[in-house]
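Tutorial handout. Part one gives the primary structure; part two gives the three-dimensional structure as tokens.
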Amino acid sequence: MGWLTIALVVVAGLALLLRWRRPAWFWMTFGVVYATLKVRIRYASVMDACDLTVPASRLRLWLARIFKWQTPRQRVPRLMWIKPTRTGLRLRIRMMPGQDAFEYSAAVDRLRHAFGVHQVTSREIKPGVVEIATTGYDVLKLVQMPARIDRSELRIPVALCEDGSVHYRDYKEVPHSVTLGAVGSGKSVTQRRVIKELAPQHVALVGIDCKSGVELAPLARRFSALADNPDDAADLLEALVARMDATYQVIRREQRISADTPDMEITANVWGLPEHLRPVPVVLTIDEIAELALFTTTAEKKRRERIIVALVRLAQLGRAAGIFLDIYGQRFGSELGDGITMLRAQLTGRMAHRVNDESSAKMAFGACPRTRCSRPRSSATTAPAWPWSATPTATGPVSAPRTPRCAKP
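Part two.
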């Protein structure tokens, strides 16, 4: 009996130590079993307490009234399966007739408290089926990317989301993006992560850093071109526009459309060209976009017009020519002058780090309601009133990712 007590004390102490120092290890050893059992046992009562049940069918109510049986209980949505993951649990649930996915999205905070987990998110899988993703610990406190990550051409992992999934930057799906954030919010960390992941790929990196190159100059060995002042940036952007026009001439020459050409074989971008004719994709990284838009003299105003016109042309026409934009800045609003809102409208990818006011966040998300923008819990106690670090995915929902720190590529 004494040895059994000692063993239990040692196991309990080990569990507490892992929960304190290595929450990921604690989850994989003790937490996943405990959470699975708790969900299995308390599932029906939690669904009832969170108003995710529906009344019994009219037939059962009629039979109970005729035969004076006990009133049937509320019907609970069917739990199809539970899948443990490295960060939490995934519950696949068959909704009852009359329910919709919004009811589960509205109840995620109640489910988080009821199941005793760190985070709960909900998404619709298909008509009638939702998936509840629970996170057992704060995965954003110390970001550790999974060992196995799906990488492909122009599709790179950038950050870890609040539900433990990986946030990818897919240039073919989302060709242009803007990243906003206050000073010290982590824009440079995201920027270096993107460059580090793109470095091994067959892609030309072009940079504009008007802070005398302090952000991108340490990575200059991998860049094909780098401008550290607005004058060089204007010439570089015009050179990219000329390259884009030349690429379109190659595409037009290789189309060779005839009456019997199938529609699926008609290409209008570089990905339909033969391998030996396809130009190398270009990723343009611009640090602090405001430095390119501000001016004080007439000469600087003319230079600004050249820059903005070139950027708008690249944003509107560059995707098919294999030119992609990554723009970083603290604010990106109409106060920067003419053409800024037209440029911002072409930037599909939006990421906002910690910002200090609501208007800065709206510059990134526009009409996206605040209820769809999650805030990382690990920064809620130390950040100002709008600590958003969120990004819309390709299908619409907004997630809260956090980028791991990385060394120089």
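Part three, for discussion. Confidence is low (pLDDT under 50) at residues 369-390. The longest helix spans residues 23-49.
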